[in-house]
Specification:
Blueprint lengths: L6 E7 L2 E7 L9 H9 L14 H18 L5 H16 L5 H6 L11 H19 L5 H18 L12 H10 L3 H32 L7 H18 L4 H14 L4 H25 L1
Antiparallel strand pairs: 1-2
Helix pairs in contact: 1-2, 1-9, 2-8, 2-11, 3-5, 3-6, 3-11, 5-6, 6-8, 8-9, 8-10
């Protein structure tokens, strides 16, 4: 059961102390083992290994262990760091009258008719060019971060604009971005980004752990794939709640006190990643 009490802590990031509330055990609609079972099928549970273990629990544990190891490298990945930094610059640009000029400084070119699709395509291109020019090429982690940014932007902006692909104008897009430039808005955007990021490498390692334990993924029908994708997305969204308010607090305080740059956003990313790794560790212990 979750502890109803919360403890307030603080973290020093880039010279700023950001207060945050420890939420305790976060409620999940499904446990991690149940998410794994939605992929493998309930029949997998009958493949017992010992009196207290099953193939489901083994696959789930192996996946979390591999994912925590991979996540530990995220804050050292130049592509991941730049991707998160660019996310902050997108929403900050929307607060300026010359917002398109501000985006052009990052290699993002929009027209009067640009849509959400156009924006996400430009963001992907800007990240590609930065990675190719400065870090020696993309990594699995940087590619996952890129896709996570696209998914986060699309999911939050699409609901606020008339069309994803057209029949809109740059003012609609600017207003939608501006809604994410507040403390609360960036908290939501950060949660979406980290949820999608974590979901991608959990999926990455789960497919390998399942194949290693069974010889091949045990998918009885396509219904399991749809159920699993939905369960995984929901589970990671709930897990990333641990950094939602933390993202908003850091973004608001840092921009006000010193401005956000690649260095201090990278420092924040490292702390957020530690929180997510701790959450994955907790899920493994609770399974």
């Amino acid at each position: 059961m979750a502890n109803s009490k919360t403890a307030t802590n603080s973290a020093s990031i880039g010279g700023s102390t950001v207060g945050h509330t420890r939420l305790g055990q976060l409620p999940k609609s499904r446990s991690w083992n149940q998410v794994v079972e939605s992929l493998t099928g309930s029949g997998l549970g009958q493949y017992a290994v010992s009196g207290s273990a099953s193939r489901v629990s083994i696959v789930a544990a192996l996946t979390l262990k591999a994912a925590r190891t991979m996540l530990a490298k995220a804050s050292d990945d130049a592509g991941v760091r730049y991707t998160f930094y660019l996310l902050t610059q997108l929403v900050l640009a929307s607060r300026r009258p010359d917002w398109r000029a501000a985006l052009e400084q990052h290699g993002i070119a929009l027209s009067d008719q640009s849509s959400v699709f156009d924006l996400t395509a430009e963001v992907q291109g800007a990240i590609d060019r930065h990675i190719d020019g400065t870090s020696g090429g993309a990594t699995d982690l940087s590619e996952m971060a890129q896709r996570a940014v696209g998914e986060a932007l699309t999911s939050l902006l699409f609901a606020q604009t008339p069309s994803m692909f057209g029949d809109t104008d740059a003012n609609d897009l600017k207003n939608a971005l501006r809604a994410l430039s507040t403390k609360k808005g960036f908290g939501q955007l950060g949660q979406k980004f980290f949820a999608s990021f974590v979901a991608r490498f959990l999926n990455f390692h789960l497919s390998r752990a399942t194949a290693a334990e069974l010889g091949a993924p045990r998918l009885q029908n396509l219904g399991y794939i749809g159920e699993f994708n939905e369960a995984l997305a929901t589970h990671c969204e709930e897990s990333a709640r641990i950094v939602r308010d933390f993202c908003g607090d850091w973004y608001s305080k840092t921009e006000y006190e010193q401005g956000i740059d690649l260095a201090n956003s990278s420092n924040f990313l490292a702390v957020a990643v530690r929180k997510l790794r701790s959450e994955l560790q907790h899920q493994g212990n609770a399974s």
